[in-house]
From TrEMBL:
Residues 89-294 form the Thioesterase TesA-like domain. Gene3D superfamilies: alpha/beta hydrolase, Non-ribosomal peptide synthase, adenylation domain. It comes from Mesorhizobium captivum. This is Thioesterase domain-containing protein. InterPro entries: AB_hydrolase_fold (IPR029058), TesA-like (IPR020802), Thioesterase (IPR001031), TubC_N (IPR041464), TubC_N_sf (IPR044894).
Length: 346
């Protein structure tokens, strides 16, 4: 792939299609005037194939336009560019997928400008950064070039919360107004510094997901088969997790897109493990999927050591914690964000 475009600029024309493709790790780009596609085995369904065929000319035109825009501010991905409210600039989790905010942006409404931030390395052309401070400064420069004066609301999801907090500090030091930093399901860096804690967190998330899924199955036989399939996959997933944390070399793959994403993920985890949060005096709102998340391995209370004034907001108890920003939970998370925004305006 020679990087003509990788779904990396104004997505307003095709938000749902591009978001669906990104969630499945399906990449599309233009090469020599032709639309190219790369996807994991089984991800490119007939429905996706039909959409790509039917809208090929539109997508090619859009991606060519996106390439030019990306050369100006490659980190700024406008999910919603309209509206009069203070714009949100959001840092994704460690896989760097800006489209993880698509559902949340949609449910925040047409009056809420929302920009996802794309890290270096996600485009497959640039190299990823492995220090939170460097990533945050890169985002800060991109934001100021795109929107020279504030105010800005800074957001971060999962492991991106650390970068969001650092980004808010930098913008504040530069004299910009940051009325709120919103952390969605934040992972404290301590989660990645201690293997036992991360394994506990992994096990808890897997168990919660298993219980939700198995409850939906209609018969005992179906539940037994599902249990067997999950058990077979568990050992492999644990080995992959431990390997990712311990080995220094990057995973080997022949797919250039997957190889670049593997480097990005490895660099992001390295950055988080190195990062030591420092005190921040600005307003911080921590949005958790549910109250039980307070007791999770994500260690959300540890943020109080550097932001003791942080406000906590909770989604419904049945919220899918690992996918809290996606359907069907995005409306509930959007609602608690609106509650926090109302408190800011009062």
């Amino acid at each position: 792939m020679n990087g003509k475009a990788l779904m990396s600029a104004d997505v307003m024309q095709f938000p749902e299609l591009l978001a669906d493709l990104a969630v499945k790790d399906i990449k599309v780009w233009v090469d020599g005037g032709r639309l190219r596609c790369s996807a994991p085995v089984g991800a490119l369904t007939e429905e996706f194939r039909d959409q790509l065929r039917e809208r090929k000319s539109e997508i090619i035109a859009f991606l060519n336009m996106a390439t030019a825009a990306a050369r100006q501010q490659p980190a700024i991905i406008p999910l919603q560019s309209r509206g009069t409210r203070t714009p949100i600039y959001a840092v994704p989790g460690h896989i760097g997928a800006p489209f993880s905010f698509s559902d949340l942006s949609k449910h925040l409404g047409d009056d809420q400008p929302f920009y996802a931030l794309q890290p270096t390395g996600f485009d497959g052309q640039s190299e990823p950064m492995d220090r939170v401070e460097d990533i945050a400064e890169y985002f800060a420069r991109q934001i100021v070039e795109y929107q020279p004066s504030g105010p800005y609301i800074i957001a971060g999801y999962c492991s991106g919360a650390a970068t969001a907090l650092e980004l808010a500090k930098i913008l504040g030091q530069w004299g910009a107004e940051v009325p709120c930093t919103a952390l969605f399901g934040p992972l404290h860096p301590a989660t990645y510094q201690k293997l036992p804690r991360l394994l506990y967190f992994f096990a808890r998330r897997s168990a919660d997901s298993f219980l939700r899924d198995i409850a939906k199955l209609p018969t005992f036989g179906a539940r037994l088969r599902y249990f067997g399939s999950r058990l077979r996959n568990l050992g492999e997933r644990l080995r992959a997790l431990v390997s990712l944390l311990r080995k220094s070399e990057e995973p080997v793959t022949t797919d250039p897109v997957l190889a670049s994403r593997a480097r990005l993920k490895s660099a992001a985890i390295t950055a988080l493990r190195r990062y030591v949060p420092t005190p921040y005096s600005g307003r911080v709102c921590i949005f958790l999927p549910n109250r039980s998340w307070l007791r999770s391995g994500a260690a959300p209370r540890r943020w109080l050591r550097v932001v003791p004034h942080a406000e906590f907001y909770f989604g419904p108890e049945d919220c899918n914690d690992t996918l809290m920003l996606e359907e069907p939970d995005a409306p509930a998370i959007a609602e608690i964000y609106r509650q926090a925004s109302q408190k800011l305006n009062d």
